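Hi! If you just cloned this repository, the fastest way to understand the data is to look at a raw example. We've pasted two of them here, unedited. The first protein comes first, obviously.
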Amino acid sequence: MKNLQSTTVLNNGVEMPWFGLGVFKVEEGQELVDAVKTAIKHGYRSIDTAAIYGNESGVGQGIREAMEETGIARENLFITSKVWNSELGYEKTIAAYEESLSKLGLDYLDLFLIHWPVEGKYKEAWRALETLYKEGRVKAIGVSNFQIHHLKDLMEDAEIKPMVNQVEYHPRLTQNELKAFCKENNIQLEAWSPLMQGQLLDNEELQEIANKYGKTIAQVILRWDLQNGVITIPKSTKAHRIEENADVFEFELSEEDMQLIESLNQNHRVGPDPDNFDF
């Protein structure tokens, strides 16, 4: 993990950047386009969106403009989107993939995820992802918000094992059992809401650690993610924050500080519980 282009190798051999830009709750418009462009120009290579965010068109525009202005080739970017719950099902999931590509204005996605483990629906959706993958239309496939029992259930019938599981992950929700299970099964864990939607940015214990390294609390948390082997995609639309978030590659947290951050766990979620959601 030397810089923003540093990658990990997924279980199918595809390289995925350790660090990326998330765009959850960023509405269509110039702010979104500019955020994507700023990130790519600053060295980010991974952009994460989803159908339900309603902003794939703006993300695509930002990607195209950044490519034109920087000369970066499409194959050097890593673009993720996700199929929403209402579109889970074999035919509907394939149609949802086509829709995401159309809105993004891309020929393929690097990673396509099932957004939530809707009971009775995610296996058929996974079969659709396997088809897209086998046809070479997507580089990697995975899931989001899957607990251990969801992963076990999926893998009972799956021909292809998920390459990624993107979940809520931060110092108040360390997900150690899930992290260990994913590592054991060679499924790459990825963090959404790594900064707990800003709720940790005034934490005194984290501030003490940040002061020690001359870093911000956000940088310390994001570095903790990376040192735990977890891909991270913090969201921001502000240019200085996009740059600051990524300034995490030239320092290393001590084992003692890693453990101290770990000890902040309260199994506290800011997002929905994957075992109890109704959407």
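Ok, and the second one:
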Amino acid sequence: MTQQVSDCTTLHNGVKMPWLGLGVWKTKDGDEVIQAVKSAIQAGYRSIDTAAAYGNEEGVGVGIKQAGVSRDELFITTKVWNADQGYDSTLKAFEESRKKLGLEVIDLYLIHWPVKGKYKDTWRAMEKLYKDGAVRAIGVSNFHTHHLKDVISESDTVPMVNQIEYHPLLSQQELRTFCNSNQIQLEAWSPLMQGNLDNPLISELATQYGKSPAQIILRWDIQNGVVTIPKSINENRIRENSEIFDFNLSEDDVARINALNKNQRFGPDPDNFNF
């Protein structure tokens, strides 16, 4: 299995995507996000995940430039926000994101949430951006199985990625099975349950493996074949989150963590959101 920070999974169109990335949700634009991005890249991260809705694409762009790593080594993700969904408005939103990030080509562009009545038109715009070479891969975020089936049934392109809330209390087994069978790479947001790491099993395994609870969970993500993007602005924590490539959880321990599932969300349900 994956043994170094820069290791990648291969998306169904052949594009390589790192298993580990830095998430920048709720990271302030300007110095805070610039420093987080630089710290991550210096620690060996090659993937940064932002979104138009985070309001920090400009800072991410500055951080990328200041980090001094060549552009073709990096994998940058951003997302179209709900208010911008629809065909023409998605194309316009993409241009805005590209300009703020200061990048010609985006590695991965995602539909942020499945806005009813709009996400299929949004997907057509994503397909155009992909065919035009403006993005290297396209995907979705927060899509349930029925949303994915809806998109797949009416388009030429199967999403390459589905970024969802995924952690030991919400392991989304049915959705994982569907994505695996359609070669859609799953990616975990809030992998660390927004800091709710106090769990007896996770603590026991952390002691057993000589790792932190966060490292146990991030390793579990990767061994389950799920890309993970923990968010942090703390340089030491960013580094610690990347130190998950020097050990393996046993199959039994992966299964024990899988069994913690309670279908418990810390974020909104994609079938029931109003933003």
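That's it. A detail worth noticing about the second one: The longest helix spans residues 87-101.
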